[in-house]
Structures are given as C-alpha cells and as structure tokens.
Amino acid sequence: WSLQVPHNDLTAFYMEQQQEEGGSGDDSLDGLSNAVPRCPLTPSLSPRKRTTSQSKTEPPLLRTNKRTIYTAGRPPWYNVTGTTFKEAFVIGLCGGSASGKTTVANKIIEALDVPWVVLLSMDSFYKVKPAQELAAKNEYNFDHPDAFDFELLVTVLRKLKKGKSVKVPVYDFTSHCRRKEWKTVYGANVVIFEGILAFANKELLKLLDMKVFVDTDSDIRLIRRLKRDISQRGRNIGGIIKQYNKFVKPAFEQYIEPTVQSADIVVPRGGENFVALDLIVQHVHSQLEKREITVRSALASAHQGQPLPKTLSVMECTPQVHGMHTIIRNKDTNRDEFIFYSKRLMRLLIEHALSFLPLKPVSVETPQGGIYDGRRLSGKRITGVSILRAGETMEQALMAVCKDIRLGKILIQTNHDTGEPELHYLRLPKDISEDYVILMDSTVSTGAAALMAVRVLLDHDVAEDKIFLSSLLMAEMGVHSVAYAFPKVRIITTAVDKEVNDQFHIIPGIGEIGTSAPTDWCESDDGMDF
Ligand SMILES: Nc1ncnc2c1ncn2[C@@H]1O[C@H](COP(=O)(O)OP(=O)(O)O)[C@@H](O)[C@H]1O
Ligand SMILES: Nc1ccn([C@@H]2O[C@H](COP(=O)(O)O)[C@@H](O)[C@H]2O)c(=O)n1
C-alpha cells in the first residue's frame, strides 16, 4: 500500500506531534504519511493558473477572486452540494508475474508529483479458501481468474473511484492468507491498480481510465520471480519452478497475455522504459488539469440573501457573551486576554452544543434511597473531531465538559496558491460510525473546510444527523454552505457575521485563532469557571 500525501512543514509538524504524544489514545487510528519523493522523469505540473477578475457590479465584501485551480489536496473534491464533484483517475497496470508492474506503478507515482495517489494491488484480493491447504502442496493455481475475489475487488475500486474510503484486505504470500486487520484507504486524485489479471474482468475494465500493459520477456520474469519468491515470499527453487511450469506459464498464455488487446499503452521493459513512463505521466497530468474546480468562489455566491437555516443555533448573546465578543474582536486586545476569553466562550459553546444531544429518561437511586428521574445520553458515545489547526484550540473545552472523550483530527490547510482548502492529514478514532461527533473549528468563513470535514466523517459512516459542527464564529456564507450541502448537520455557534472579504476572512470577524501555537491554548484552566 502506498498512500502519498504532500510533504509540507505543517503536516510533518502534526505527524511528529502525534508520535510524541503517542497518538490520541487509540492505537488503531488511521494515519496517513509518507512524503512524495521528487523524481526528475518529467517536468512538474505547470504553475497553477490564477486569474483575478472581479466584476464592478459585485458587492464589495462578498466578491471573490475567480480562480482557475488545479485540484490538489484530497480530490475527488466535493462541490457545493457536498456530493462528489470529480472521480479519481484510475490507471490499470497489467502484466505477467514479476513483469515490473509494482516497479512501474511506483515510478509513475514519483513522477506524477501529485498529492494523494493510492496504489491498489490485485494481490490483496486473493481468495483464502481453498488456496491455503492446496498451496502447501503446490497444487493451487494462483494465476487462474477463480483465485481472485473479483466481486470485492470491483466494489472496492468503484468506491475508491468515487472518492470514498475503503477497507482492503492485506494478503500474506508466505501463509497464503489474509491478515486479520484490513487496511483503510482514502479517496485520492489518482488510483493505480496493478495485477496479473487487471484486464480480465469486464466490470473492472469499465473502471479503468487508462490501461497499461507491462510487457517483459518471460525469461527475465522467471529469473526475477525466482529471486523475489526466495527472498521475499519464503519459497524454494524447486517449488517455484514446479509452480511456474504447472500454473504460472500456462495461465499467462491463456488469461494474461491475450488481455494486452485491452491496453491503451504497452510498456516493454517495464520500469526502465523512461519514454513510456513520461508519456503516461503527461497524459495523467492533462486529465487531472481538466478536472479543475473552484470550491471557495463557488460557495461564495451560492446562497446569498437566503434566510438562515433551521439547523443553525446561535448561542444567546447575553451581556457576558457580548462582553467576551467585544474583547476577542478588539484588535488591541493582548494575546493572553484573547486566548483567555476565547477559551471561556468555547466552553460555553461546547456546553450549548451538548444540549442538542438526545437524552433518554432514566431513574437513579440517590444515596438517601430516593428515586431521581434523570436523563442519560441516548446513543453510543460522543467523539470530538477538530479541524486543524484552529479547531484544536477547542479540544480543551470539550475535554473539560465530557469525561474521557475520544478525539480525532482532520488537518485541512489552505493552499496559498489557489486559496482552496486541502485535506492533508486524518486521524479518527476507531469505530466512529455510531458516535455523536462534535466537529470543531474555531471559525467558519466560506464553509469549504467544514464541508470537507463533514464529507470525511460521512465517508467514515458517521450519520449526518449525528454531526454537530461547533464554531466560535461563523460567516453567513459558511452557515449556508454547510446547511445546504448537509441539511441534517446541526450548526452551533456563538455569533454569525454577515460578510467575508476577498481573502475569505470573516467581517467584522475576530483575530486569527489558528496562528497561535497550540500549546498557548493548553495552559491550566484556572479561572475559567463561570
Ligand atoms: N527493470 C528492472 N530491473 C531489475 N529488476 C527489476 C526491474 N523491475 C522489477 N525488478 C525486480 O523484479 C521483481 C518483481 O518486480 P515487480 O515490480 O514487483 O513486479 P510485479 O509487480 O509485476 O510482480 C522485484 O524484485 C523488482 O525489484
Ligand atoms: N499465495 C500466493 C499468491 C500468489 N502467488 C503468485 O503471485 C503472482 C502474482 O503476484 P505478482 O506480484 O507476481 O504479480 C502470481 O503469479 C501467483 O502465482 C503465489 O505464488 N502465492
């Protein structure tokens, strides 16, 4: 499995933080890592186009730069309705065993230089029974189409193409079976799917946008297979040759070689063929550039002038709340005071958000032996998910009011070239699908990041009506975007401001919460009670 995310300082910072902290208290969290190495095979993508054309008739503060962007971060992106906007580009790599499919796939990934590329291997979909028993006697044909679970494979690839996260089996060539734990894989820009029978199934073929056949001489394949199977798959020479003559060679001739006819490109010599690799990479780049979209600017104009949605709950502006807003919105407020009063408001906000969780009646016995008719959370449990970086500042408030709460993190960063949000890092607690999720971001302006975060939660099967987006301050635009795309998501905030400027800042707005170091928000809680 190869999951590629763009390497940048912030991602690295959070990865290191997580490691130092030993994770978020759950060792089965899904994390994404690995920097994409740069490869000189092809020139990198053309600089992202950025055009600024603002009409004079547009209102001064709601105007947005009209930008043409190259999709980055974690497309397939989602449009203003929260549905998948563009599908992933799927490359199919077929060829005989040890022809160099994996090597070619890795070279394409390096040369593509695109964030979020997933490598899916057909090997993960080997059936386990009756293979395991027969394989021990070298009597099982792993090269026959019946050896693969095509149904699961098609389901998984179809979901990945739609940008959904999937669970994939992990195959062990030594024991001929699947490992207990399956791997979670997230949607990507590009999916590279490789396997000996990658072109042998009609449904699979329909999912492939580009079909590449790696054509390597059979003697070379046999020599490579001998070396690899001895060093990596726990085999001996006699067994390898027996299996090769009995199954691998005949199956190649009958099932694999003929599928070369489905290929768009045939690559002789595999990974050494730089000209062919260059052509493939150029084609993928051109296809990805066709998938340009502008999320923020689309959101900016989508719901102007509409009444605020019923799913929005703005906390009552008591004199206390009003006073705190005055402090945190004042540009002359010093850092300490800003943090102190923001934290105090966050605590109130979280309490307010929790008041929307459904409670069921329950009777308890008091120490005096009386019966008290009480209320208890109806449902499994509450999980907090912060949209990094700013949302992380709200975690402390949530932890202060919910005992032993589980926390997840989603790092969404604005691309400075495009102004678009990009998903860079994701870490969610295990089995989140039954939970009520308090999704935290300190401010929501256009709603693009919040939309993406909600989408990620839905991809993890969290129910839409169990998501409570909680934000200190929101712009009307952000409220509309989220409410329109996800009408069942509850939106909770302490105030809604009217406008967003052309840098997507909320106006009148507050200071930049995300620019403070996360540790500034983790000091002692002394004096925070109200
Ligand atoms: N061009 C090459 N030159 C030398 N060895 C190679 C080359 N391409 C692949 N190999 C080696 O051959 C073996 C099989 O390659 P791999 O890419 O895993 O093939 P496949 O995925 O088709 O089975 C690996 O050990 C790999 O390192
Ligand atoms: N338990 C298994 C499963 C598969 N094989 C052989 O692996 C080959 C496919 O993998 P490549 O990386 O070479 O594409 C295939 O030819 C099977 O014979 C195996 O030996 N044992």
**Main sheet overview:** 7 strands, mixed
Tell me the number of structural domains.
Answer: 2
Mean residue pLDDT: 80
N-end to C-end Cα span: 50 Å
What is the overall silhouette?
A: elongated
Number of helices: 14
> What percent of residues adopt helix (DSSP H or I)?
25-40%
Word description of this protein:
Its EC number is 2.7.1.48. InterPro entries: P-loop_NTPase (IPR027417), PRK/URK (IPR006083), PRTase-like (IPR029057), PRTase_dom (IPR000836), Uridine_kinase-like (IPR000764). Interacts with RNF19B. It is found in: Cytoplasm; Nucleus. It is an enzyme of class 2 (transferase). With 530 residues, the protein is an alpha/beta fold. The chain has 2 domains: 2-13 and 81-289, Rossmann fold (3-Layer(aba) Sandwich); 297-521, Rossmann fold (3-Layer(aba) Sandwich), CATH 3.40.50. Helices cover 32% and strands 20% of the residues. The protein has 14 helices and 24 strands. It has helices at residues 9-21, 101-112, 131-136, 150-161, 202-207, 218-231, 237-256, 274-289, 295-302, 319-329, 335-354, 395-401, 448-459, 476-485; strands spanning 2-3, 89-95, 117-121, 166-168, 171-172, 177-178, 183-185, 190-195, 210-215, 265-268, 312-314, 359-365, 371-377, 382-388, 406-414, 421-427, 436-440, 443-444, 467-471, 473-475, 490-493, 496-497, 499-500, 506-507. Strands 11-21-19-17-14-15-16 form a 7-stranded mixed sheet, sandwiched between helices. A 6-stranded mixed sheet has the order 1-3-8-2-9-10, sandwiched between helices. Strand 5 and strand 6 (177-178) form a beta hairpin. The longest helix has 20 residues, at 237-256. Residues 1-76 and 524-530 have low confidence and may be disordered. Residues 97-98, 101, 123, 126, 135, 142-143, 173, 176, 196, 248 line the site of the ligand Nc1ccn([C@@H]2O[C@H](COP(=O)(O)O)[C@@H](O)[C@H]2O)c(=O)n1.
